[in-house]
């Protein structure tokens, strides 16, 4: 009786081993696409007296530093808007300013987890206007650090009177 138990155990173990070695492999490496790959967009900055900047800019989401607002992430994950980092309008403005040597400033609002763009090339609203952000002709429904840009998008910061 003991031999029968041992034999059954060996047969079961051998059968299980064969089943496992002959089963197709189902574990595959999971590849997550890079959602924050740089994209090329057209950026336009329209002030009250005309065009302040227009050009193509390569951008991705990144930390942004302003004189007034300090350093904060600006990669689409702000306010839980996107699950992973993505290129954003404010990051595009920041990249253009650094690469084309102009200034911009913004106030950081922790309650919105985003910047308010206050000045671009020393042009501010002064309480009578604000910098509206639009993508492909439509105002963004969220802040400039929350909106996901795609390659070829047309991003505009437009001085807009109240």
Question: Strands, helices and their partners?
Answer:
Elements: H1 2-22, E1 39-47, E2 50-59, E3 62-66, E4 70-74, H2 89-100, E5 104-109, E6 114-120, E7 123-124, E8 129-135, E9 138-139, E10 154-161
Parallel strand pairs: 1-10
Antiparallel strand pairs: 1-2, 3-4, 5-6, 6-7, 8-9, 8-10
CATH class: Mainly Beta
Number of domains: 1
Contiguous helical run count: 2
Summarize the helix and strand pattern as letters: HEEEEHEEEEEE
Q: Tell me, what's the shape?
A: globular
DSSP helix fraction: 10-25%
Give the key terms:
162 residues, alpha+beta, Ferric Hydroxamate Uptake Protein, Chain A, domain 1, 5-stranded mixed sheet, 3-stranded antiparallel sheet, globular
Describe the structure in brief.
Helix content is 20%, strand content 38%. The chain is an alpha+beta fold.
Description:
InterPro entries: TAT_signal (IPR006311), Transcobalamin-like_C (IPR027954). Residues 1-27 form the signal peptide. It holds the Pfam family DUF4430. Keywords: Signal. This is DUF4430 domain-containing protein. The protein has 162 residues and is of the alpha+beta class. It has a single domain, classed as Beta Complex (Ferric Hydroxamate Uptake Protein, Chain A, domain 1), CATH 2.170.130. It contains two helices and ten strands; from the N terminus they run H-E-E-E-E-H-E-E-E-E-E-E. It has helices at residues 2-22, 89-100, and strands at 39-47, 50-59, 62-66, 70-74, 104-109, 114-120, 123-124, 129-135, 138-139, 154-161. The strands form three sheets. It has a five-stranded mixed sheet. The protein has a three-stranded antiparallel sheet with strand order 5-6-7, with helices on one face. Strands 3-4 form a two-stranded antiparallel sheet. It is globular. The chain starts with a helix and ends with a strand. 29% of the residues are buried. Residues 3-29 have low confidence and may be disordered.
């Amino acid at each position: 009786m003991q031999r029968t138990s041992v034999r059954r155990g060996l047969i079961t173990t051998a059968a299980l081993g064969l089943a496992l070695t002959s089963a197709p492999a189902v574990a595959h490496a999971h590849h997550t696409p890079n959602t924050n790959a740089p994209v090329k967009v057209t950026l336009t900055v329209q002030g009250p007296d005309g065009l302040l900047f227009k050009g193509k800019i390569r951008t991705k989401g990144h930390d942004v530093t302003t004189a007034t607002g300090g350093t904060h992430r600006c990669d689409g994950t702000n306010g839980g808007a996107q699950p992973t980092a993505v290129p954003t309008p404010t990051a595009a403005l920041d990249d253009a300013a650094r690469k084309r040597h102009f200034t911009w400033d913004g106030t950081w609002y922790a309650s919105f987890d985003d910047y308010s763009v206050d000045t671009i090339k020393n042009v501010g609203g002064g309480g009578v206007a604000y910098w509206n952000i639009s993508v492909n002709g439509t105002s963004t429904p969220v802040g400039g650090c929350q909106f996901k840009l795609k390659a070829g998008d047309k991003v505009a910061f437009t001085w807009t009177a109240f």
